[in-house]
Amino acid sequence: MVLLRAAREVADEGRENPLREAANRLSWAGLEAARAPSIDEARGHEGSAGQTYFSVFDHMIGGDREAFHFDGRSRRPPLDRVNALMSFVYALLRHDIESALESVGLDPTVGFLHADRPGRPSLALDLMEELRAALADRLVLTLVNRRQCRFWIYRAGWRWHSDGRCDAQGGRHRMAIAQAGRDRAPYLNERIPVGLVPYVQALLLARYVRGGLDAYPAFFWR
């Protein structure tokens, strides 16, 4: 949905066509993952889908291209401003999901897709895969494309370190405020603050795990 919405918003075919093609490939990857006979094969499809998604991410950036460009996902450390923004928003989202899972009585460390490892919030990462593009990536794109991050460049909002990594130290409080003010309409068919979406999905997941729902209703962003 993020790719298709971006395809509708861009102004030239050179950016629109790759986005639509990638969205089509992601649809097929989702079908293949659903039919996968093992969890390992499903993880393979998920990894391939991630590569497809990030391969066209730069086409969704329409703001200050000189200051904000995406050459590929880089983590630990993030090597450019877009990756720094993404890493920070991902950390906020993961924290919210962990808290939501704990509040409904689920253990954030026992997951389905992500392998269980000491100290890894595997279930939180599972739920994050569902919400990351719509809640986190779209927030980053909105801030960049509306040039709401541009002033950080000139006000010591960015820090570049000797190892090449970048962080958005000076803009963290503004990012949190921007995130808190966004609204969406998920499964419940009513408008709720975006900050409640992780809790709602965690609650639905808990009901499914405990037998209260026949299937887990995934989050769809309109």
Provide keyphrases for this structure.
single chain, 222 residues, mainly alpha, Four Helix Bundle (Hemerythrin (Met), subunit A), 2 domains, two-stranded antiparallel ribbon, globular
Could you tell me how far the N terminus lies from the C terminus, measured between alpha carbons in angstroms? Answer: 8 Å
CATH topology of the largest domain, by name, is Four Helix Bundle (Hemerythrin (Met), subunit A)
As a percent range, the share of strand residues is under 5%
Q: What's the story with the biggest beta sheet? A: 2 strands, antiparallel
Mean pLDDT across residues: 79
Overall structural domain count = 2
Per DSSP E runs of 2 or more residues, the count of β-strands stands at 4
CATH superfamily of the largest domain: CRISPR-associated endonuclease Cas1, C-terminal domain
- Count of DSSP H/I helices: 8
| Spatial order of the strands forming the largest sheet | 1-2
Helix-strand topology string: HHHHHHEEHEEH
Overall 3D form: globular
The CATH class designation of the largest domain is: Mainly Alpha
Which regions contain 5 or more consecutive residues with pLDDT less than 50? 170-181
Describe it for me?
With 222 residues, this protein is mainly alpha-helical. The chain folds into two domains: 1-60; 66-222, Up-down Bundle (Four Helix Bundle (Hemerythrin (Met), subunit A)), CATH 1.20.120. Helices cover 55% and strands 4% of the residues.
